[in-house]
């Protein structure tokens, strides 16, 4: 019995830490992501978890988009950069950007 | 305002560092470029970009270490050459040693997960429980997206995600700028030929 009680207490403290971190994450992600629409619910417990869920969803979608962009840009560059050589006009432009 | 200005200058430095390392990696292909197909070229560009962006973190983050562990899994010798070019020989050897460390931590995480499953679950269908399930589900997806995420606890995962997203943005920005510059260069040379 005592084993179950101690297990419950550890799970509640770990979820409290995660909620704080998630609130922290919401404020930081606001700078990185497009606007996250906040859903208002009467139940207070659900607000944190609803926003956490929304944030995680936006984050996953955003990372997937970024992965796809890298892939598409690699495709585009493989066709454009016909010469990955030191003596090409493209390299001169790249050097001017550094 | 100051924080934002500092952010933009540090991200500019990051972009420069990524660009230099990326181009360094690409230069390893100068001798073989004539035999490369378009797909080979694309993989070379992507590989160099991934190694370059991971190394800008000096391997202080889990995701960057996981990226390098994945790269060194590749049997193809070219990835080793690119890594050496971008990082130097010493760092490449260190990364090979860290492969074993990652393998051990993966086994440890497996054992912990197996123990947790045997404890058993109680199904309570309250709104908060359903919301918790959703959060868990999304966390699982996020763990799959962030390299090395499967071995992290939730707090670590969130911190790594922030850093990973910032690095991905740098990577995408620089690659997009180069692609646009190459586009313009191509346009201008075409016009001069007319």
Question: What would you say this structure looks like, in words?
Answer:
The complex is a heterodimer of chains A (98) and B (194). Chain A has 98 residues and is mostly helical. Helix content of chain A is 79%, strand content 0%. Residues 1-14 and 35-42 of chain A have low confidence and may be disordered. With 194 residues, chain B is mostly helical. Chain B has helices spanning 2-27, 38-55, 62-73, 77-87, 89-119, 127-145, 154-193. The model of chain B has no long low-confidence stretch (mean pLDDT 77). Classes of the chains: A mainly alpha (98), B mainly alpha (194). The interface between A and B is large, with 47 and 54 residues. Chain B: It holds the Pfam family IBH1_N. Chain B: Keywords: Nucleus, Transcription, Transcription regulation. Chain B: InterPro entries: bHLH_AtIBH1-like (IPR044549), HLH_DNA-bd_sf (IPR036638), IBH1-like (IPR044660), IBH1_N (IPR059002).
Can you give keywords for this protein?
heterodimer; A: 98 residues; mainly alpha; 3 helices; 79% helix; B: 194 residues; 7 helices; 81% helix
